[in-house]
Amino acid sequence: MNITDEYDHLAPKLIGKKEGTFAYFTVRDRWPKIVTSLVDQLARRRAELIEQYGSGVERDIADILEKFAKLRYEIMTDKALCNLCEDRLDGRKWREMLNDMRTGIMPNDTEELTYFKGPWLFVECFLYRYIYSAFNITNHLGQMDYFEESKKKNFMDHLPQIEESAAFLMKISAKDAPVHELFGINTILKSSLWGNRADMSLTGGDDHTMKMSSIAASSKLADFVLIDDVNELICKVLGPLQINEKKLKNRRVDIVLDNAGVELAGDLVLAEFLLARGFADKVIVHGKAIPWFVSDTTENDFNWVVDQLKEAGPESTKFGEQLKKRIENMEIIFKCDLFWISPHPYYIMEKEAPELFEELTTSSLLIFKGDLNYRKLVGDRDWDLDTSFKTACRGFAPCPFFALRTLKAETVAGLSAASIDKLLAKFDEDNSWMTSGEYAVCQLGGV
User: Fold this and answer.
1) What is the pLDDT of residues 281-313, one digit of tens each?
2) CA 346 to CA 375: how far, in whole Å?
3) d(CA 117, CA 219)
4) Where are the alpha helices (DSSP H) in 291-428?
5) Alpha helices of 106-252 — where are they, by DSSP H?
6) SS3 category, 442
7) What are the residue boundaries of the Damage-control phosphatase ARMT1-like metal-binding domain, all occurrences included (predicted)?
8) pLDDT tens track for 165-204
């Protein structure tokens, strides 16, 4: 992997050692809290797990707790990252990446690859891969989704909002709906955007119920969208897809998912809208192969949400049944390439995951959801705010792509002079707007 390059001086990678930054707060407070929450969960569920797996699981629990106590100490005291103790999935690749990073991050050997000093994105991905490894090598808990409870609770806590979204979708996508072909695009996209506020990794796994539904937010929070390329997306991509002059029957849209729960429900609303209104013949949704960043979507989350939509109300029930038909007919397909759980920025996808990159070149539109995908798009770097989005993405463009992101990290590119002036007038040198989740971007690339 590329360790250093010419962009390191122009736009340094975000790291956790700079006090006062969100990366520093994340390493100091959020990561230890996430590890502690997993320890608490195992202690709370000990009797349940023994009943399910037998007394042998106690050894597994003890081993995990020992690893997590050491992990929490090493994070808080800025120790060096250790090697993974298994080669499953991408374990061998991770060992190579760790060795490369150790030898390449600081050529003068003045600093080690530690939790605070290493590149934030790389270390954060390592943390979640290490957590997975701790469970995966046990005798009984290797398939356990240790974030499952919070993801399911997030869904159940938002049933009224989910029903509202499903009702809007069913109304405008009905065959006899008296609406223009392009009606609802902005609302559906912005609803998917604002569903990204329900990110449990931001709260360390604590409950986070959105006070305003995503449908309501799609219109009421317009002033908080710093970059809005929806109209350009319609003109250059979605409009031509729907007109379909060549009468293509293989129009494909890809959605790289972020969080499970209510956000996933909104993303499935987007997928169904694209199919029902004739923008695509199939939608590929990409999730994570393992539990990731507390609330990211796995295949089990995907299947569970589709099945549980019936709990939200009558319109959600109809929506869920429609999704099951789409899945059966392979009009909606779930995939989980291991690249999505790597620490790689997307501009090196063609090198690191050539088969995935080649597959995406066949897509008509690639939609990236959420903060982590955006961080990987722009390399998790401290770009000048007015740096063009194209420059920050460094040539990544297998097809037209669209980023829907609420800001939760101190990296963003492509802001206009007017937006920058507005933010400076309101916040001056305070960068809290970059991490609060209150501001958002809808950015188009690859066209």
Assistant:
1) 999 999 999 999 999 999 999 999 999 999 999
2) 9
3) 41
4) 299-308, 314-328, 349-352, 354-360, 370-377, 389-393, 417-427
5) 120-136, 148-156, 159-173, 185-194, 214-220, 230-233, 239-243
6) strand
7) 26-420
8) 999 999 998 877 766 777 899 999 999 999 998 776 665 5
